[in-house]
Amino acid sequence: MARDIKITSITATHFDYQIADLALEEQLGFDTVYKKGGRLSASGGLLSIETSAGISGTTSGGIDSRTAQYLLGRNPLDREIIWHDLKRSRRVQDGTPPGAVDIALWDFAGKLYDAPIYELLGGGWRKKLPAYASTYHGDENGGLATPDDFAQFALRCKQEYGYPAFKIHGWVNGPIDREVAAVLAIRAVVGDDMDLLLDPAGCFPTFEDVLKVGRACDEARYMWYEDPFRGGGFSRFAHAKLRELIKTPMLMGEHVRGLEAKADTITAGATDFVRANAQADGGITGVMKIAALAESHGLDVELHGGSLPHRHIMATLRNANYYELGLVHPLVGDTKPAVYSERCWLDELDSVDENGCVEVPEGPGLGVEFDREWIEDHKTGETVYE
């Protein structure tokens, strides 16, 4: 009986890996940029929730001890109850349930019922998801160092890989005139039949800079302008004010977590597209709530970052446009941990088909096998709760 299933143990596996020709931007040390000969150290994890049914739910991510102790003995099918309990437990942090836990529980349910997650969510509107190439930040090291570097990379993404859209992450604390030049240069090179997106990631210091770049986006007919303000874009007032002065639609919400905060962002008139992220916004359950919220206001929801959960979610959404495939760079090869058995699931630059689309997994749950040998080779530790 499904009602008798219990969570019996939880395993968090930790691993490290390195990425060639990348480094942290030297001025602030927060953002990742191209650097020939560099080696960027990165870490990751795998969360596995074991059950009395002999079926586990597994996804990328980790878990804290308090959450793990709460889950032990619970029915893994009680996702909604678990979601609200964990939401309250994190009210001091950000009020958002741990995304990895919710995703692992959905993976378990898919395996239990022998169905991919997108079917459990209501079935797929589409099995091929149009993607945009989402770049690393501009650098001063000969990678994406000039407006023409970005323009030529956009053209390559269009012509060589078939991407229908391209998103630039510009320079951190760089000259604003160079940012404006890049916005205009990309459109001039790729023509009118490619959607262009801009994400400054909060790196512009003044409202005048934000406005100047926004007006360049107007001139170049960008699809959206994303989180340009310092501090993560938390000011609804600033975004609403900017929307009065430019024509380009705003996308806000990458750093504003949770259902209620997204609702406040919409009702304040601070955004045109609504951001959602399964890891940061409460898992698949949280994102589906946000997608319904956006739909109820006549808005589209755009998923932040690529992942297997996002492929399943986007397959079920009417009101979503593009899958974010990133981050990518013209001079950097593999940048993702090779945790899956097939390359097409890793979100590398060449993970799209000839039309710039990614596939939706068809196996049970998340639908993709993990590369256990790679994980074991890169494992640095393991934490077991039982």
CATH topology of the largest domain: TIM Barrel
Order of SSEs, N→C?
EEEHHHHEHEHEHEHEHEHEHEEHE
**Spans of at least 5 consecutive residues with low confidence:** none
CATH superfamily grouping of the largest domain = Enolase-like C-terminal domain
The helix fraction, in percent, is 25-40%
Radius of gyration: 21 Å
Q: Given this structure, which CATH class of the largest domain is correct?
A: Alpha Beta
What composes the largest sheet? 9 strands, mixed
Task: Label this structure with key terms.
single chain; 386 residues; alpha/beta; Enolase-like, domain 1; TIM Barrel; 2 domains; nine-stranded mixed β-sheet; four-stranded antiparallel β-sheet; 13 strands; 33% helix; 24% strand
Structure description:
The chain has 386 residues and is an alpha/beta fold. The protein has two domains: 2-115 and 371-385, Enolase-like, N-terminal domain (Enolase-like, domain 1), CATH 3.30.390; 128-359, Enolase-like C-terminal domain (TIM Barrel), CATH 3.20.20.120. It is 33% helix and 24% strand. Helix 3 packs across helix 10, helix 5 runs parallel beside helix 6 (176-190) and helix 9 (259-267) packs parallel to helix 10 (283-296). The two termini are 22 Å apart.
